[in-house]
Amino acid sequence: MNFDKLFESKPIQMLQELGGKMQSNKVFSSISGGMMGTMNLILAGAVFSIISMLLNISGILETTDPVYQWLQLPYNMTMGVVGLAASFGVAYSYTKNLEMKGEVANGFVSMFLFMMVCAPVQQVTLADGSTKSMLDTSFLGGSGMFTAMIMAILVVRIIKFFQDHHIALKMPDSVPPFLSDSFATLIPLLANIVLWLGLNTLLQNVMGANIPAAIMGILSIPLNALVSGPDMIVIVFIAMLFWSVGIHGTMIAYMVIMPVMIQAYGVNAELVASGADPVFNPVFLFGAAACCGGTGNTLPLAVHFLRAKSEQCRAIGKASVVPAIFNISEPIVFGAPIMFNPILCIPFILNAVIMTAIFYAGFMVGFFQPPYVLIMTALPVILQEFLQSLAWQNCLLPVIGFVLGFLIYAPFVKMYDKQCLANETASE
């Protein structure tokens, strides 16, 4: 397919220019670099998740088996704390981009503050009456990602302010650099603690939620009134838009639709058990946004990357294509990256929205069948759609998603690949 005329159009040239500016921007490039630094964690967790998934599908292991739980532990401890890793990586990368000293020290400061805000130590009384100190890990993963990125940037800026104004504890030259860097960040660390702890306490007293919970709660408010089929298309659009700016859009959407979804699956399960046909509920449409490669239907994007000319894109493609087959999208979402990348954000949003509209139209004409088996884990492409409904028609949804996604991603991948290749050539 010839995209030359498309690339020469003014909107595309403006998009390329915007993408180039964001790549060279110190904040966005730091976020990108910090997120790409989490790739090894995500891939390692994905490997164990795929193994446990295959053993479960084959009937060797049940989800309640200790071995299955053991295999899921690496995934939970990587994706479950990816926000924590990002808080270190973004701060480290931003410190380097600002040509400051103490990258490691700033990374640890950011990580400590992120944990203080998102997972403070809590005393919990157990059933036997004893007490334990516990960490609430709810926001250490993807749901706290946006908070991690914003905090990392602001924390480093505050440290830089103190350094620029020479407000720091000075150590003799004989002191090792890592120790000197730690003392140099002590005063700005105290300032950051007062700021973030104070803001967190204020939100907990006013809204009954910490910073990440407050952010997600506020963002979910506009979605509460959306209940119809067309409304679900809007929800998918908003969720993908949130993902594009580093906010866990799926988690925000689930805060709104999960109670309705569980109820809808329960109703259909009862209908099928009684011999009746399951009924359509608009909440089922949300699955179309992740039917072919996880969130944003990224399997066709991974395949495109395998055929790219730039080394960066090919490496991301090789690392993400197998997880995408198992509907795990994090390697490519964080690795490409898609977040804060206008060139890839557009097809990421567009294909999910169009697929949701196609799914809705298929339900309206009676082709696609309503699901009645609630599956709360990622399964390989096609298998999840079939097991949820036991209808062969629904197996065509990811097939359509791959073809549509391949066509939509194609011109944007070529554009992004060209930019990455130019950057690699310039670096050489």
Plain-language structure description:
It is a single chain. The two termini are 30 Å apart. The chain is globular and about 80 Å long. The protein is built from 19 helices and two strands. The protein has a two-stranded antiparallel ribbon. It has helices spanning 4-8, 10-24, 26-36, 39-57, 66-79, 82-97, 103-118, 145-164, 177-184, 186-206, 211-220, 229-244, 249-273, 299-306, 311-325, 330-335, 342-364, 383-389, 396-427; strands spanning 121-125, 131-135. With 428 residues, the protein is an all-alpha fold.
Observed structural traits:
mainly alpha, 2% strand, 428 residues, 2 strands, 19 helices, two-stranded antiparallel ribbon, globular
Produce a short descriptive summary:
The chain is mostly helical and 428 residues long. It has helices at residues 4-8, 10-24, 26-36, 39-57, 66-79, 82-97, 103-118, 145-164, 177-184, 186-206, 211-220, 229-244, 249-273, 299-306, 311-325, 330-335, 342-364, 383-389, 396-427; strands at 121-125, 131-135.
